């Protein structure tokens, strides 16, 4: 999960700014205004303009549904377990329809730019601490304040074991940020395609859950909402924190996420072509798709408890304050993140100093001890998640949450 911290967007006047204005009074309603984001702003440059709320994955969904009908999901999981590298041939024995689907959809889009992907890899390395914090903790807090996502996660198989779920999700997060993400020896293509299959399985399984009501989950709009809680939110926060970034870096960072969206099955006509288009789309889809749920509150508590546990050096009140620092106050309230005035004040004071120090804008002796403590805690957190991410793999779920 990578949603916990989309909150300071109010300050940047971005999507969360809009959320702050709208969300206070109108939590998490279905979008009632028509879809107006223009496909001319997409990487495709054109499109029918269909509302993505009513579009799912017309290629993956029937293939995965057929796997369930034929009882082949366990076999497929077994066969795909050791399919890890981008350039690795598929194992023999896969059902023909699935084999063809993967071969077609493991290709990079024609617009993928190797130079930009290389720049993005370097950027991810240089900005890893911020990005892991924003995509991991921040993104996690945001996702729990997206009712459709919180309910999907809660009632799917992974909802019963959030440690494993977080570890699996972090596999893709780290794959996107890896130096070789989309190179032959990397694994981001494989993990994106596997995630696309998992999402198709969730669309098949969740409507069968006695706890589920509503539309088929994980529409194209839902994926876009989550996508904006990752790169769009992270970029806005880094700008707000005045992290120095070149235009080439910013564009490259967007690009690696554009390619990832494509591989996750988002249609090119919905993938923003530049940051202006991304911000506009984010402002349209996030506010009406955020709000409180009991499931989101419980997931938030589990996630923050895990974070406090795993970063042994910091306490739960500090973790709560960190999460609150990363998200808008309205989101923190929806997630019911407990308040801690002391730590909230401390982080607000120390964080800008830490950023300036890391960016070599101020000399070391001015950095207070607490900044190092936070820095170190985050490193440990990231390291732990990385380690766990290597212990497990993304597999197609065979059922929903059992209880
Ligand atoms: C599974 C990433 C959007 C709900 C996964 C997995 C990854 C992932 C890596 C595999 C890990 C696992 O099996 O636990 C992403 C990314 C997204 C996105 C990068 C958007 C850019 C969404 C949305 C929803 C959603 C919008 C719901 C509204 C789920 C669920 C699972 C899953 C329910 C399966 C959990 C399980 O049964 O274990 N996602 N996801 N995802 N995702 Fe997403």
TrEMBL record:
Q: Give the source's domain of life in one word.
A: Bacteria
One GO MF annotation is: oxidoreductase activity
Start and end of every ER-bound oxygenase mpaB/mpaB'/Rubber oxygenase catalytic domain? 193-332
Q: PROSITE patterns given for it? A: TAT
Question: By its UniProt entry, which PANTHER family does this protein fall under?
Answer: ER-BOUND OXYGENASE MPAB_MPAB'_RUBBER OXYGENASE CATALYTIC DOMAIN-CONTAINING PROTEIN (PTHR37539:SF1), SECRETED PROTEIN-RELATED (PTHR37539)
What is this protein identified as? Uncharacterized protein DUF2236
């Amino acid at each position: 999960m990578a949603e916990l911290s989309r909150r300071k967007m109010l300050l940047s006047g971005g999507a969360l700014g809009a959320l702050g204005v709208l969300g206070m009074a109108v939590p998490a309603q279905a979008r009632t205004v028509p879809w107006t984001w223009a496909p001319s702003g997409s990487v495709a440059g054109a499109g029918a303009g269909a509302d993505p709320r009513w579009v799912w994955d017309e290629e993956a969904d029937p293939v995965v549904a057929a796997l369930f009908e034929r009882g082949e999901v366990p076999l497929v999981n077994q066969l795909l377990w050791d399919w890890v590298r981008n350039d690795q041939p598929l194992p023999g024995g896969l059902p023909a329809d699935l084999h063809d689907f993967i071969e077609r959809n493991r290709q990079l889009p024609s617009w993928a730019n190797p130079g930009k992907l290389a720049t993005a890899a370097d950027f991810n390395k240089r900005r890893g601490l911020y990005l892991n914090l924003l995509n991991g903790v921040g993104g996690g807090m945001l996702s729990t304040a997206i009712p459709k996502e919180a309910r999907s996660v809660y009632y799917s198989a992974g909802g019963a074991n959030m440690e494993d779920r977080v570890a699996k999700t972090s596999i893709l997060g780290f794959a996107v940020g890896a130096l070789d993400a989309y190179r032959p020896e990397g694994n981001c293509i494989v993990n994106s395609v596997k995630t696309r299959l998992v999402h198709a399985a969730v669309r098949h399984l969740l409507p069968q859950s006695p706890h589920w009501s509503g539309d088929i989950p994980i529409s194209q709009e839902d994926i876009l909402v989550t996508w904006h809680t990752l790169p769009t939110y992270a970029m806005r926060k880094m700008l707000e924190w005045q992290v120095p970034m070149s235009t080439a870096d910013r564009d490259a960072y967007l690009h690696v996420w554009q390619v990832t969206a494509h591989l996750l099955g988002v249609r090119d006509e919905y993938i923003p072509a530049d940051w202006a288009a991304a911000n506009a789309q984010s402002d349209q889809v996030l506010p009406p798709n955020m709000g409180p749920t009991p499931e989101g509150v419980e997931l938030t508590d589990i996630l923050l408890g895990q974070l406090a546990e795993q970063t042994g050096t910091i306490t739960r009140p500090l973790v709560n304050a960190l999460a609150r620092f990363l998200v808008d106050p309205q989101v923190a309230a929806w997630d019911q993140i407990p308040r801690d005035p002391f730590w909230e004040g401390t982080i607000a004071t120390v964080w800008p100093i830490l950023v300036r120090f890391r960016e070599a804008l101020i000399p070391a002796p001015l950095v207070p001890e607490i900044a190092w403590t936070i820095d170190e805690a985050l490193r440990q957190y990231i390291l732990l998640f990385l380690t766990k991410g290597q212990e497990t793999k993304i597999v197609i779920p065979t059922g929903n949450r059992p209880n």
